[in-house]
Amino acid sequence: MKNIIITPAQIKKELFIWLLCLIAGTGLNIYAIIYYETMWSELYTQAGYVIALSFVIYLILWVFRGLFRLIRYLTKKF
Amino acid sequence: MRFLLDLTETKDMEIVALCDIYRPHLSEAIKMCDAKGIKVKQYLHYEDLLSSEKPDGVIIATPLHQHAHITIDCLKAGIHVFCEKAMARTLDDTRAMYDAHIETGRILQIGHQRLFNPVYLEGIKRIHDGKLGQLGQIRAYWHRNNDWRRPVPDKTEKMERFINWRLYKEYSAGLLTELMSHQIQVANWALDKTPVSVTGTGSIVFWKDGREVDDNVALIYSYDNGVQFIYGSMTSNKKYGLEEQIMGHKGTIEFETNRYYTETPPPAPGILQLLNDIESGLFEKVNIGGASWVPETAVKYNGEPIIENTDFYDTGLQLEGFISHVREGKAPEKLIREGYNASIWTLLGEKAIETGEKITLPEKYQI
Q1: CA atoms of B328 and B55, how far apart (whole Å)
Q2: According to the model, what pLDDT value does residue B3 have?
Q3: Which has the minimum average pLDDT: B112-121, B185-194, B267-276?
Q4: Average pLDDT of the residues in B113-125
Q5: A50, B17, B122, B225: least CB-packed within 10 angstroms?
């Protein structure tokens, strides 16, 4: 049995990536408010959707990062 | 009966006597009183009750064809009357009941409980305040999927007609007097008008079991401002249940479900619109051939409640109202006018179905 060790550095890195996703989600919310001419109060009233969206973006990124690592591993091995 | 018994606990009111010509129902009602510790006198015939008792008020919940003579006798005996809708089986009897109320000065309140329902009171206020804009149509329906029969203790023709009186034209106009009368009252109230004409059609399309009243009716009432009240009722499909839809150019009210819908619903939040557009762009099919138009199906918008707190029973509220009116010795004249006009126009609807003609109100029934 192999122990998986998550280091504080890794946690920090993941949190940083999620923070970027949250910023991206907020950016999309601002874009949507301007584009659809809705109310600026949606910056906080729609915060729940923005947080949920940030997790979706994070998950998508996680899949791409996994694929990238897999390709890198395979190219190194062969 | 249940609501009345509840009111004896909260209101300063006493049930003094019960009367029913059908002994099993009378016994059942006595049992309900006994269970609450209420002792009442019992009568089989209302004439005996009137000669022995002097109640302040009476509630008449007999089959329709018996409303008129009992009501008139009670009013003439100086008793205030609450009578179930519709008022009477015939136009003349309906007019006679109204005249007896005017002559005696006694209260005659008809069982249109929506007049006491807070959802309706608030909704009607909004309509009269112009919140719905110019009304165009009022649509109402009341659909059930059952035979509308009650079990008959023996199989005699006499007992069948006695118990299932709603199915025979001698005693009832069926769906019209038993259901529609409630909803045309709402239409008249919303418009603060009475119709100028009615056309209609009806048939027995499903329950071909010896009944005489239609199991399927459709009517259109017209008002002097051009608004129409469009009505349908059947007893072989209940998908749409019952509803009254008041439709103006600024909004719609659906009373039975306590909903108000504006014609200009607030837009969805920007972020949801954006996500929806992205999803549509990714997954929506592109029509290469076929229809080039979008079907104008109903707008998907849940609206908002007319009022928030709906923890009440309007049947109880109307009885509470009657008790208060009896105590005061008078009731708003609007109540009897609403009941009268709803009953008269219900019976004119029956006439329209029977004759196939457009029916207007004869002068002698105008109040």
Answers
A1: 15
A2: 86
A3: B267-276
A4: 98
A5: B225
Please check whether residue A59 lies inside any domain of the structure.
yes
Residues 6+ apart with CB under 8 A from B103: B75
Cα separations in angstroms, B225 against B26, B135, B184, B229, B323: 48, 10, 16, 12, 37
Topology, domain B115-266+298-312+337-365: Dihydrodipicolinate Reductase; domain 2 (3.30.360)
Q: Which two tokens stand for residue B136?
A: 């165009």
Q: Is residue A1 part of a domain?
A: no
Ranges in chain B annotated CATH 3.30.360.10: 115-266+298-312+337-365
- Does residue A5 lie within any of the structural domains? no
**What is the average pLDDT score of chain B?**
94
* Cβ contacts of B275 on chain A, cutoff 8 Å: 53
| Predicted confidence band of residue B290 (pLDDT cuts 50, 70, 90) | low
Among B72, B115, B90, which residue's Cα sits nearest to residue B322? Answer: B115
Min Cα distance B270 → chain A (Å) is: 5
Range(s) of chain B covered by CATH 3.40.50.720: 2-113+318-335
On whether the CB atoms of residues B165 and B185 are closer than 8 A, the answer is no
Residues 6+ apart with CB under 8 A from B14: B8
In a domain, A60, yes or no: yes
Query: What pLDDT does B155 receive?
Result: 84
Q: Name which of A31, A34, A49 is nearest B272 (Cβ-Cβ).
A: A49
Query: What is the maximal distance between C-alpha atoms in chain B?
Result: 84
Length of chain B: 367
Q: Which residues in B have their CB inside 8 Å of a CB on A?
A: 267, 269-275
Domains: count for chain A: 1
Q: What is the pLDDT of residue B8?
A: 84
Cβ contact B273–A32 (<8 Å): yes
Q: Which residues of A sit within 8 Å Cβ distance of B?
A: 28-29, 31-36, 38, 42, 45-46, 49-50, 53
Cα→Cα distances B44→B1, B16, B37, B309, Å: 17, 14, 22, 41
- Note whether A46 contacts B273, CB cutoff 8 Å: no
CA distance B281 to chain A (A): 16
CA dist B196 and B113 (Å) reads 25
Q: Percentages helix, strand, coil for chain B, rounded to the nearest 5?
A: 40, 20, 40
Domain range B2-113+318-335, CATH class = alpha beta
What are the tens digits of pLDDT across the range B145-163?
999 999 998 889 999 999 9
